[in-house]
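Researcher: Re-running this chain for the archive, since the previous output was lost when a drive failed. Same request as before.
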Amino acid sequence: MPLLIILLLLFSIQQPGMADEQKPLRFGVLSIAQPSRIFNNWQPFADYISEKTGQPVEIVIPRGFGKMAKAITEGEIDFFYVNSLVFYRLKQQGQAVAVAQMENIAGETTSHSEIFVRRDSAIENVNDLKGKNMAYISPMGAGGYLAPRALLYEEGLQSGIENQETFTKNLSNTIHGVLLGEYDAGTMCGVNYALMSKKIETGELKVIAISEPYPENVVGAREDLPQKQLQQFRELLLAMPDDPAGKTVLQNMHKMKIRAFVKYDPAMESVTRRLLKEGNL
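Model: Regenerated structure tokens:
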């Protein structure tokens, strides 16, 4: 009987550790895409990380900045992929630390936004957008709002005051809306515009302005995660291009304009800070 009791006690002590090993790592993705599409795009990445860590990886898709911030605060997300503006806001709130930075398919860690109009419109430059309806992607977008809005303000046009701001929440909606004349002008990341131009005929559009560079997306983590876990995740991401399986996963992510994940440069935050000031945000 004493031996049985001892064995039961040992088993009860081991159980929590066993449960912790099986606890899924939760990876949040903040995106304007449909949830089903996000899952399809990110599942190979989740499977890769799971195989490398021996831990299940669960994809979590909060819809909007507020829900993402809440999920991080309540410990429902461990790591996450967000644009640089969202990361900056989360870090300012003490909710996030950087793990790595996205390098886009152009091989850059920054991008530019492009403002485009119909070729047959009378709009030739930013000044002609006064009183017009401007289609942005999202109010929390780095390339879909922050950078182009900063450009307009720098050119002397107070976006949202001297023209109308509309948020389409969708890349294709923005392009189609300008083509159909629903909006006078549209804007998005230049890399995304090039990718979308392979799917949608944009020959009737012309680019009239290009923004200053803004930082590309960031992989972040909850501020309270153990440093060892954070470092392990970082090393996995940075090593993906040199691992055959990781390289295959990255190649499949080109459609999301992701080429690789590289070391995070804190100096990028000063770029976001400047754009916020220029855009009066």
